[in-house]
Design goal:
The complex is a heterodimer of chains A (110) and B (119). Chain A is mainly beta and 110 residues long. Helices cover 0% and strands 45% of the residues of chain A. Chain A has no helices and 9 strands. The model of chain A has no long low-confidence stretch (mean pLDDT 96). Chain B has 119 residues and is mainly beta. The radius of gyration of chain B is 13 Å and the shape is globular. Classes of the chains: A mainly beta (110), B mainly beta (119). Chains A and B meet through strand 7 and strand 8 of A and strand 5 and strand 10 of B.
Chain lengths: 110, 119
């Protein structure tokens, strides 16, 4: 049982937009920055979004992040088959004093 | 170019030990907190341990506390995870990751090393 809650799967057609939600509490998302990671099959996680909505160098602007209260959202526009991956949200939990992650969301581009 | 390269994984019997290493390059290693995160087969990411830049502070997930020890050698640009009293539930790919936001952001990850605990 992950501290952060994500939907197990989402799907959309190529070229469409999809959003992935991440729900937490005041001890984690509510009072800390959120990051998002992409994990392509058989590879290590890769940072997509940090500080709720910032993109590291090299990450296309098709990827966006937002946060409201104790929830965060990852948005992906112009879906490509290469976007098929598992996506994880992550943050710090001030009560647990540990880094926490969502359970992951598998994106299928139909 | 920032690189993190893990090694030391393998097959070990329950109750056994392993030491994982993560060699860093391309950045000033001694300036960063480092984390170990694991991923059981088909499962999500789970934080295991972290160490601050000068090794004066460490912390652990409850599931590994008392069994795992994190350490680092800044002269060798390496962070370690000593794993003792291994259990079947410790079977996972272990990643080291660089922390840049006090636990909220890990900007670089290693390729991972697989630890399998089985008789």
């Amino acid at each position: 049982q992950s501290v952060l809650t994500q939907p197990p799967s989402v799907s959309a057609a190529p070229g469409q937009k999809v959003t992935i939600s991440c729900s937490g509490s005041s001890s984690n998302i509510g009072n800390n920055y959120v990051s998002w990671y992409q994990q392509l099959p058989g590879t290590a996680p890769k940072l997509l979004i940090y500080d709720n909505n910032k993109r590291p160098s090299g990450i296309p602007d098709r990827f966006s992040g937002s946060k409201s209260g104790t929830s965060a959202t990852l948005g992906i526009t112009g879906l490509q088959t290469g976007d098929e991956a598992d996506y994880y949200c992550g943050t710090w939990d001030s009560s647990l004093s540990e880094a926490v992650f969502g359970g992951g969301t598998k994106l299928t581009v139909l | 170019e920032v690189q993190l390269v893990e090694s030391g994984g393998g097959l070990v019997q329950p109750g056994g030990s392993l030491r994982l290493s993560c060699v860093a390059s391309g950045f000033t290693f001694s300036s960063y907190w480092m984390y170990w995160v694991r991923q059981a087969p088909g499962k999500g990411l789970v934080w295991v341990s972290r160490i601050n830049s000068d090794a004066s502070s460490t912390s652990y997930a409850d599931s590994v506390k008392g069994r795992f020890t994190i350490s680092r050698d800044n002269a060798k640009n390496t962070v370690y995870l000593q794993m003792n009293s291994l259990r079947a539930e410790d079977t996972a790919v272990y990643y080291c990751a660089r922390d840049v936001r006090g636990g909220t952001c890990h900007d670089y990850w290693g390729q991972g090393t697989l630890v399998t605990v089985s008789s």
